[in-house]
Amino acid sequence: MAMEYFIQQLINGISVGSIYALIALGYTMVYGIIKLINFAHGDVFMVGSFIGLFSARYLASAGLPPVLVLIISLIFSMTVSALLGITIERLAYKPIRKSTRIAALITAIGVSFLLEYTGVLVLGPQAQGFPDIMVKKQYQLFGTSIQVDSNQVMILITTIILMIILQYIVRYTKTGKAMRAVSFDMEAARLMGINVDRTISATFAIGSALAAAAGVIFGMTYNSVDPLMGVMPGLKAFVAAVLGGIGSIPGALVGGLLLGTVETEISSMGYSSWRDGVAFAVLILILIFKPSGLFGKNVREKV
Amino acid sequence: MKKINKKFWLGIIAALALYGVVQVLLTTGILDDVQRSMLLLICVNVMLAVSLNLINGITGQFSIGHAGFMSVGAYTSAILTLDYDVPFVLAIVAGGIVAAIFGVLIGMPTLRLNGDYLAIATLGFGEIIRIIMLNTEYVGGASGLSGIPAKSTWTIMFFFMLITVVLINNFIRSTHGRACLAIRENEIAAEAMGINTTLYKVIAFTLGALFAGMAGGLSAHTFYVITPGSFNFLKSFEILVMVVLGGLGSTAGSIVGAVFVTLLYTYLRDVPEWRMIIYSIVLILMMIFRPGGLLGSTKFSLKKFGKKEAKANGGISDSSAS
Asked: Is residue A159 part of a domain?
């Protein structure tokens, strides 16, 4: 029985982990390309969640079937958030690309506050209920007591599809190749005729779209969204990105899933108030013993 | 040598004059209670900003866990005055010392890390300290400690602030401070010149933690209540913002930044729903148009005040972009 309980929590952990992983991808891609900890990323996740909420409400009242409501609001939210990501990059981060890293970090914190409190101003500080897009169904696994609900299946399917698309974009498209080249060496990429500005915008767009998808999934799982909801998941997702090795896409995925499962197991053992502490403790241990993260490249210091 | 001494004493006299003027204004009632608590808050924030500047600006170690040290100091001194009736000033100093011990314990393992990794590790430690406080019944858990005697007066606050600024500023100008600056400029070169980089990084970190702890204790005894939530990573960001807005690496800048942010926070209280929005827009615009901060890397001396600084661009080199 204990084993089944453990596996049950593992399955629950994977859904939380998928949300972290989707947000972490945006962090890791942006960091990989312009070495900026984009603290506003958690708030793009929040905006995505709200756009998903409004479009789902509208579409559901128009009487569309649940699967269509989900797909359309997911795509709509991802598109708008991608545009938001590009706008943020153009207006706030591009002018300071040449200044110090700490100035860039402060700008990111500023953008984060701006999104959060514009949200509070426009939407009010209270949490709003996310519409039930799909009726939750429970499934038993292989005659055991382990349960999986339809929402968890949906999360897993969405995450896997998005990962496949992301892998395809990064590996095989021209934009993806440009992204890898720019993250490897921005100046050399520029000399090779790659449009660096456009590539950076594309990175922000993809990262923000993934965060928005995570936002919609988060709303469907927890049924409650508010303007400050992005702060903690954003920070955790960043932890996940560092855990997996910042700059590495598979690292973000593994880091997110790992963090999600560790957290869920800790909560299920009755230590839920220590959950965040354990997440940070794992991070610090990883940093001390393997500073570049699980999948990170080891960068030698040059004199 | 004599010249430095003269400038030093001129600064002290100017500070004492400022103290006297404000004290007179307070006793005659020209400044009301709101402005009084704002002045006390400025003192706390100046201590926090100047001590973080020693770590971030002078030694170049990117730390964003300052609120953690602040909370250690605040809780220690609050418990000492509440439960053990320890004299106020002694409790504050004890809070600073406990925070400094935490600084050593946290600094030893993490200061091997570079740049952004160090930032994240310190942020993690700050959050862990908060979560430990949150889960400890003895310190009140989530509701924190309340009924802390409001013993902070303008006189005590001002002299704690003055001592902090003078000590840190003198440290920066000493041999040890030069070593810290060398680490900021180029760690490998500093090590090659025979500087024990780990030792100096830990010293800077510990000193920063010491003063942050004292600032925490003072703020606890100003505002009666402390909760773990008031020392989260957003508080650390706020301190970092003061340092960077003022000018990273400049003590005078940190003071200006702390005063500026405190004033901004206080006066925007009249428009609560717009407060954070205006604040964030100010942050973004400042970083775009004046990335080196208000004062750049101006050193703390009266002579240079008002003079245009040659190195407007912050004067800090990027430690992790080797």
From this structure: yes
d(CA B1, nearest CA chain A) in Å:
34
Residues 186-205 of B with CB under 8 A from A: 188
B297 inside 8 A of chain A by CB: no
pLDDT digits (tens, 9 = 90+) for B259-309: 999 998 888 888 888 888 988 998 888 888 887 777 765 555 444 444 444
Residue B237, min C-alpha distance to chain A (Å): 8
Q: What is the C-alpha separation between B155 and B183, in angstroms, rounded?
A: 36
Tell me the angle at which helices B197-220 and B88-110 cross, rounded to the nearest 10 degrees: 140
Instruction: State whether A118 and B110 contact (CB < 8 Å).
Output: no
- The range of the structural domain enclosing residue B141 comes to 13-232
- Residue A111 falls inside a structural domain: yes
Residues of B in contact with A298 (CB under 8 A): none
Q: Which domain holds residue A192?
A: 19-230
* Position A232 pLDDT exceeds 90: no
A275 in a domain, yes or no?
no
Domain membership flag for residue B64: yes
Residue B290: inside a domain, yes or no? no
What is the chain A residue with the closest CA to B187? A303
Could you tell me if A101 lies within 8 Å of chain B, comparing CB atoms? yes
A115 pLDDT higher than 90: yes
**What separation, in Å, do the N-terminal and C-terminal C-alpha atoms of chain B show?**
36
Interchain contact B227–A (C-beta under 8 A): no
CB contact under 8 A, A117 and B131: no
Is residue B291 less than 8 Å (CB to CB) from chain A?
A: yes
Portion 281-300 of A in contact with B at CB < 8 A: 281, 283-284, 287-288, 291
- A31-34 contacts at long range (C-beta below 8 A, 24 or more positions apart): A31/A241, A31/A246, A31/A247, A31/B116, A32/A183, A32/A246, A32/A247, A32/A248, A33/A179, A33/A182, A33/A183, A33/A186, A33/A199, A33/A200, A33/A203, A34/A93, A34/A97, A34/A200
pLDDT score of A52: 92
Q: What is the pLDDT of residue B3?
A: 62
What is the tally of structural domains in chain A? 1
Q: pTM for this one?
A: 0.85
Q: Does B108 touch chain A (CB under 8 A)?
A: no
pLDDT score for B35: 83
**What mean pLDDT is reported for chain A?**
87
Q: Classify residue B308 as exposed, middle or buried by CB count within 10 Å of its CB (0-12, 13-18, 19+).
A: exposed
Mean pLDDT of A254-275: 86
**ipTM score assigned to the predicted complex:** 0.83
